[in-house]
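Before a colleague's protein record goes any further, I have to sign it off. Would you go through it and say whether the fold makes sense for this chain? Take the sequence as given and treat only the C-alpha cells as open to question. The record follows directly below this note.
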Amino acid sequence: MTHAVEIRDLHKQFGDNLVLKGIDFTVEPGQVVCVIGPSGSGKSTLLRCVNLLEEPTKGKVFVNGAELTDPDADIDAARRHVGMVFQQFNLFPHLSALRNVMIAQQRVLKRGAKEAEIVARENLEKVGVGDKWNSYPGQLSGGQQQRVAIARALAMNPDLMLFDEPTSALDPELVGDVLTVMRKLAEEGMTMLVVTHEMGFAREVADRVVFMDGGVIVEDGPPSQVIGDPRQERTRSFLRRVLHPEG
C-alpha cells in the first residue's frame, strides 16, 4: 500500500540554524498522526515541508507515492490533494465566508460558480457554520473563522489534511468547536497530520503520536505509549510541563 506521506532523511536549515535533522517518517492512508513537542522543535517546519511551503535543504518528500522533492514534480497538482489549515485563519477579509470557500475551487479546480457554491455550502454546513455563509471574517469569532478555513480546505476534496496548531490562536472557550470538527473528520477516515498542543485531542483521536524535540523525532507510537507511558526522559519532561504547568 502506498503511504499517504513518506519523508526520508529530511533536513531543513535556515541560515546557520538546522531546524530538521534527518527526519524519517510515514503516515498511512486514514491515519491521524499528532505531532507534539516544545516550541522551536521543528514541528511546523516539518508540516510545511510536506506540501513544500518550505523547501527541504536535503531529503525526499512523497505524498500518495508522488515525490514532491523531484525537480520535475508538478507541485501544484500534488498540492491539490493536500488541504492545509494554519494557526492564523488566512481568510480574505473582503470576501464572505461563502466566497472564501468558493474561490480556490473556481481558480484551482476550475469548478463553475454553481457547483463551487453547492460544495461551499455543504462544507460550511459540515463544520457547523452553514448559517454564517454571508458573514465576513471580521464578523465571525476566531473559532468560526477557523471552521470556515477548514471548510475551504475540505471543499478541494483533499486526500490529506495538514493542521498547524489550528487552535492556538483561539480563546479557550472556542477551541472545543474546532476540535469537534476535527474529531468528526477523523471518524470519517480523513488522513490527518496535526501539529498540536492539545494533549486531550492527541490522546483520544490520534492513531499515532510523534514527539519532536531539537529537530529530531524522539518518540513515535500510539498515544497510550507516547503520552501515557513515554520511554524517553525528554518526552516525560515535556509532558510534565504541559500537563501540570503549575507543578
The beta strands are 5-14, 17-27, 32-36, 58-63, 66-67, 82-85, 160-164, 191-195, 208-213, 216-221. The chain has a mean pLDDT of 93. The first strand starts at residue 5 and ends at 14. The two ends are 45 Å apart (CA to CA).
